[in-house]
Specification:
With about 350 residues, this protein is of the alpha/beta class. The chain has 10 helices and 15 strands. It has 2 domains: about 70 residues, SH3 Domains (SH3 type barrels, Roll), CATH 2.30.30; about 220 residues, Glycoside hydrolase/deacetylase (TIM Barrel, Alpha-Beta Barrel), CATH 3.20.20. Helix 5 packs parallel to helix 6. The termini are far apart. The C terminus is likely disordered.
Length: about 350
């Protein structure tokens, strides 16, 4: 009797010790070969097939699958109904929920101001400012509730600081166009980098705005200068529609060129240097809006893509086929919910 009690006591001690140290659980495959899956789903990729009577260590319990470790050291998931469990089941697997992706603030702000990516969009862009001529362009944009992108030259900021700040304050995008407009195919990498960083730093110093896109002078890059854009984290923004305002300096021709060639997703090249361009915007902007175009920044338009822009890669328009489906704007003038009086 004493021996039996002693034996029982020892068994309890061993069981308790095993529980403290972490009990191991085992099962045997039954009913034919069984797949080891990458995830707990029958359509997940297979890590291998294991024959009937294969003994596996059971790491965690689940609803339809258990996480197991096979004799060859692989870890994955097997369906519970095809396993014979030798000594019960381990605890349920505790998984950390995957955090929801952080919404793109540029996209969110565009949707909040009523931009609908399912309707025509067009991005007006202006090179070589800030200059006195920028003010007339800004006035036309403000009068019509439109947004645009300004690719600025660092050397033109001095004396036009208030204009640069106005661009930022009124919700426009500011990109870097270099410091002094050299051809990036004809200067060294160190010069290219300095041209960009001086301009970017000056914009941020004066406005707090961080430049995230660039346009090269003359639209020209080579392998070495493109490498610098990649290193600086800057997508390269070109254009699909050239207004030729730099060539003819004619208000009427600027208007007719853009209106005749405007299309959904276009990026339009203009220059906020000449008064003729500012005059053209006073007519062109309301006309484009009347035609159904939403005038947005390049960053806003590109934020609706199903993939982010890549640094050092050139983009000249928004491929409409790449707009992420299911995006809808927040209705403007949405009334606040009624107070709950119950």
């Amino acid at each position: 009797m004493k021996k039996a009690l002693f034996f029982l006591l020892m068994m309890l001690v061993l069981a308790a010790a095993q529980a403290v140290s972490g009990q191991e659980y085992y099962a045997t495959v039954k009913g034919g070969a069984l797949h080891l899956r990458e995830q707990a789903h029958k359509d997940a990729p297979s890590l291998g097939r294991y024959n009937s009577k294969t003994r596996v260590q059971v790491l965690y319990d689940g609803e339809e699958f258990c996480k197991v470790k096979t004799p060859d050291g692989k870890e994955g998931y097997m369906m519970k109904e095809y396993l014979d469990f030798e000594n019960g089941l381990p605890p349920k697997e505790v998984t950390t929920p995957t955090p929801a992706p952080t919404p793109d603030p540029t996209r969110q702000n565009a949707l909040l101001r009523g931009i609908d990516p399912n309707k025509p969009m067009l991005a007006l862009t202006f090179d070589d400012g800030p200059q006195p001529g920028s003010e007339r362009v800004l006035d036309a944009l403000k009068a019509n509730g439109a947004r645009a992108t300004f690719f600025v030259l660092g050397k033109n900021i001095e004396g036009n600081e208030a204009t640069l700040k106005r661009m930022v304050d009124e919700g426009h995008q500011v990109g870097a166009h270099s410091w002094s407009h050299p051809n990036f195919r004809e200067v060294s990498e160190s010069v290219v980098r300095s041209q960009m960083t001086r301009t970017m730093d000056k914009v941020e110093e004066l406005t707090g705005y961080k430049v995230t896109m660039m346009r090269p002078p003359y639209g020209a890059l080579n392998r070495l200068s493109r490498r610098q854009m990649t290193d600086l984290g800057l997508p390269v923004i070109l254009w699909s529609l050239d207004s030729l305002d730099w060539q003819h300096k004619s208000t009427s021709k600027t208007i007719s060129t853009i209106k005749s060639k405007a299309e959904n997703g276009a990026i339009v090249l203009c220059h906020d240097v000449w008064d003729t361009t500012g005059a053209a915007m006073e007519t062109l902007i309301p006309d484009l809006i009347a035609q159904g175009y939403q005038l947005v920044t390049v960053a806003e338009m590109m934020s609706f893509r199903n993939a982010p822009l890549n640094a050092g890669t050139e983009y000249s328009f928004l491929d409409i086929a790449k707009i992420e489906p299911g995006l809808t704007p927040v209705p403007l003038n949405t009334p606040s919910p009624a107070a709950d009086n119950q």
